[in-house]
Specification:
Bound molecules: 2'-deoxyguanosine-5'-diphosphate, fe (iii) ion
Radius of gyration: 15 Å
Number of helices: 10
Pfam families: HD
Helix content: 55-70%
EC number: 3.6.1.41
CATH superfamily: Hypothetical protein af1432
Catalytic activity: P(1),P(4)-bis(5'-adenosyl) tetraphosphate + H2O = 2 ADP + 2 H(+)
Number of domains: 1
GO molecular function: bis(5'-nucleosyl)-tetraphosphatase (symmetrical) activity; metal ion binding; nucleotide binding
Protein name: bis(5'-nucleosyl)-tetraphosphatase (symmetrical)
Length: 187
């Protein structure tokens, strides 16, 4: 699918704010892809679709998780964790986008996982550092993202877990697996 068509497809599914976030994730992901030698086209496509299912009804997402080869344990965790896995399935069903690299980058953009590919790290990081975001410690991550992709992802993962723990949130195993793996890869 051409990227301009992808943007048109995604737009009606998102709020204006979320759509603008998506476009900034796209720009950020393209820059990271160029810097770190990843396919710009794959980065763009994954970025444009990463939040495609953010506003699906919980019933619909639950049905897709139950029917498709997705881990059922997702249903025991916060529904914020569902939109990436569900989007990775629906883009293939609805638009025939069958590209494992792109689908995995969308799937894992919220939690990360152990052994993330370069493309997965680019989407995970771009979602966090896009210029519309403001969290404590974000400026430092943006600086590291200029020179060290793995280290910037590790910082993202660490910040995310600290934030979730400060809220007493229940943390999905892949979120921890990402942190452990990135710690080994970067320290
Ligand atoms: O969709 P976005 O808002 O652009 O960002 P996202 O998909 O990266 O994250 C969505 C939310 O999910 C965000 O508030 C952080 C949260 N999150 C990430 N990992 C976990 C998590 N929430 C819980 N409860 N557990 C996790 O492991
Ligand atoms: Fe998301
Ligand atoms: Fe994220
Ligand atoms: Fe996002």
């Amino acid at each position: 699918m051409k990227i301009d068509d992808a943007i048109e497809v995604v737009k009606p599914h998102l709020t204006q704010k979320r759509f603008e976030h998506t476009l900034r994730v796209r720009d950020t992901a393209v820059k990271l892809a160029e810097k770190y030698g990843e396919s710009k086209l794959k980065a763009e496509l994954a970025a444009v679709f990463h939040d495609y299912c953010k506003y699906r009804s919980l019933d619909e997402m639950e049905r897709i998780i139950k029917m498709d080869p997705l881990p059922k344990d997702l249903l025991k965790f916060h529904h914020e964790l569902w939109h990436g896995p569900v989007a990775s399935i629906l883009i293939e069903k609805e638009y025939g986008i069958k590209d494992n690299d792109v689908q995995r980058a969308i799937y894992y953009h919220t939690t990360g996982r152990a052994n993330m590919s370069k493309l997965e790290m680019i989407i995970f990081l771009a979602d966090y550092i896009e210029p519309g975001r403001e969290f404590p410690g974000l400026q430092e991550v943006r600086e590291v993202a200029e020179t060290n992709l793995v280290h910037a992802c590790w910082m993202t993962s660490k910040n995310m877990i600290s934030f979730l723990m400060s809220k007493n949130a229940i943390i999905y195993p892949d979120t921890f697996y990402a942190y452990n793996d990135l710690t080994i890869r970067t320290n």
